[in-house]
Amino acid sequence: MKKFFGKKIAIISGGFSQEREVSLRSGKNVYNALKRLGYNVTLVDPAISFDLATFDVAFNMLHGFFGEDGAIQAIIEDYKIPVTGSSLAASLKTQNKIISKVFFDRHKIPTATFKICIQPLTTLPSEFSFPVFVKPHSEGSSVDVYIIHDNDDLFNKTTQLTNHYSTYLIETYIPGKEITVGIIQTPEIMALPILELQPKNTFYDYHAKYTPGMTTFVLPATLSDEDTVNVKEVAIQAFTLFGCSGFGRVDMIFHPERGAHVLEINTVPGMTDTSDLPAQAKEAGISFETLVEYILNTATLSTQKICV
Fold first, then answer.
1. Given this model, what pLDDT does residue 305 score?
2. Among 270, 276, 294, 302, which one carries the catalytic annotation?
3. Is 293 marked active-site?
4. CATH tag, 8-85
5. Domain boundaries, the chain
6. pTM listed for this prediction
7. Whole-angstrom distance, CA of residue 125 vs CA of residue 132
8. In the predicted model, what is the mean pLDDT of the chain?
9. Per-residue DSSP letter, 305
């Protein structure tokens, strides 16, 4: 189905976040794929222009701040044109890790124990023990996420996070397999083959995500059939709980005894040559062009109100 064939399509990428360069790469890949399919596409960078008045549909490839937090969705909503991906409300809830964690807890979706912090820490809160993760409340691509092993590093990194973000999270470290589940709508919600990530770094950080050769992709993940079914069910449960749509990715840690724990939901996952979602789609027999067209076809008018 070529729902928007012949329409003027804005591929929105770049923007203002720390993930700008990744977003530009994602946007270029999507642009090239749609070009090959014969679509009328134009690259639009909000850092240069916000004008979408001449376009019929927007394909959002902005990662992180201004792309996954509801901001660009609010602007596109004002233009009254369809946009790919999740609504303003779903984007706001998933991008903010504090809101996400509260929702996970409230709806019994397994996740790591966490605490919201607003100042540097010299020692761990009583409910935690080393190692722990500290992370910003609203960044993506593992930007400024650190694993902490001692009090000195705890103070240094939490000072950095406090100065930069004011608010941050501390999380229990859960040992296990790093896995991620890509989700697309075709138009039914479909969980793609589970990807297991074996980074050469301590964990799947920004460097491991976007540097070729720094992470081994295991597709499908080394999980039993039963665990595979359960992980996909948790991923779809989380995706639908937040009202996500179009496409996305649910990142998890799989503990051998305690099962899957959701880390976060990405509503605009990367579409670069080293990104997870295209690799998962390929494993499912879906070409990059077909994946991009699936996402484009789910573009809708965003009219949801924010409710958190």
1. 43
2. 270
3. no
4. 3.40.50.20
5. 8-85, 93-109+174-296, 114-172
6. 0.86
7. 11
8. 91
9. P
Cα dihedral 118, 120, 123, 124 sign: positive
Q: How far apart are CA 80 and CA 301, in angstroms?
A: 7
Q: Is 249 a catalytic residue?
A: yes
pLDDT digits (tens, 9 = 90+) for 83-130: 999 999 999 999 888 899 999 999 999 999 999 999 999 999 999 999
CB atoms within 10 A of CB 242: 23
What the block records as the tokens of 125 is 């809160």
User: Rounded to an integer, what distance in angstroms lies between the CA atom of residue 153 and that of residue 55?
Assistant: 49
Domain 93-109+174-296 is found in CATH 3.30.930.10:
no
Note if 226 is an active site residue.
no
19 belongs to the catalytic site: yes
Residue from 26, 87, 100, 266 carrying the catalytic annotation: 266
Q: Do 93-109+174-296 and 8-85 fall under one CATH topology?
A: no
Active site residue 206: no
Q: CATH top-level class for 114-172?
A: alpha beta
Does residue 40 have an active-site annotation? no
